[in-house]
């Protein structure tokens, strides 16, 4: 009995010691987890602070360049706009690279600020470097004298190259405007790295080959618009009953209804004041698509086509009723017609 009791006592002491060691080890592991969580939070906060300060500094630099265009001569304005454009593209890339550690609020604030910058850039360019319309006319002294009192307005008649203008030999924004029931095409040579504007189009089929810098769609009705990789942003405003397809860094869509978007986007799509907008992955293809992706600098492997932020829908955890995903069976796969 004594030996058995002693053995039981030793066994109990060993088990107690084992439990104490396990408890001690659990405390150590818990302390390590807490330490790692605290360090991780600290790193995230540091990254957030770095992003905020860097973004604000670069944003202020761009705004200063744009404000400096007022009253400057054409050469200075052109230089400032080129620098502002390059800085805006870099700021967009910086935002895309920082998305993983930003909160949704921080991301939305930065995207809204960036869109405001891009809008200011476009408006400053249009104001400081107004487009000059031109036409070639065969003139004689007789026709000059006869027609002098009734010269046609600059917009009269179709331009020699619709949607494109030249200002002092430099290329400006290109695109199409005020067209109905037409098939419209721009080649890579025409749009490469330029701002493209499509406005007031009705029942048109548009093909934009190449890689634009930005794409602006305004007052589009019943159109099919397909575009190659856009190196920065696409802005859609007042579009209805249309089908759109493009890759881009950022998409901002306003006042749009009953429109299908086949999208490749490396950040997140944003909609505001929209209804009946549906999304599917970008599926249009043409012979030089891969080359244009390389020109655009977009990440071919990153596509957040179904990550859509609706600025009019703030109910967390409940899907927005203003947009949907196009079912696979209903997605368009042939774009030749």
Automatic annotation (TrEMBL):
Basic and acidic residues: compositionally biased ranges: 16-49
UniProt keyword annotation of Phosphoprotein present: yes
GO CC terms for this protein?
cytosol
What would you give as a GO molecular function for this chain, any one? tubulin binding
One GO biological process term is: tubulin complex assembly
Annotated compartments: Cytoplasm
Q: Domain named C-CAP/cofactor C-like: which ranges? A: 159-313
Composition skew (Pro residues), residue ranges = 151-161
One Pfam family hit: TBCC
Query: In its keyword annotation, does this UniProt entry include Phosphoprotein?
Result: yes
Segments carrying the region annotation (Disordered) are: 1-49, 138-172
Q: What segments bear the compositional bias annotation Polar residues?
A: 1-11
InterPro entries for the chain? C-CAP_CF_C-like, CAP/MinC_C, CARP_motif, TBCC, TBCC_N, TBCC_N_sf, Tubulin-bd_cofactor_C_dom
Q: Which residues cross the membrane?
A: none
Predominant place of localization: cytoplasm
- Which keywords belong to this entry? Acetylation, Chaperone, Cytoplasm, Phosphoprotein
**What does the UniProt record say this protein does?**
Tubulin-folding protein; involved in the final step of the tubulin folding pathway.
Q: How does it assemble?
A: Supercomplex made of cofactors A to E. Cofactors A and D function by capturing and stabilizing tubulin in a quasi-native conformation. Cofactor E binds to the cofactor D-tubulin complex; interaction with cofactor C then causes the release of tubulin polypeptides that are committed to the native state.
Write out the similarity annotation: Belongs to the TBCC family.
Descriptive protein name: Tubulin-specific chaperone C
- Native organism is Stegastes partitus
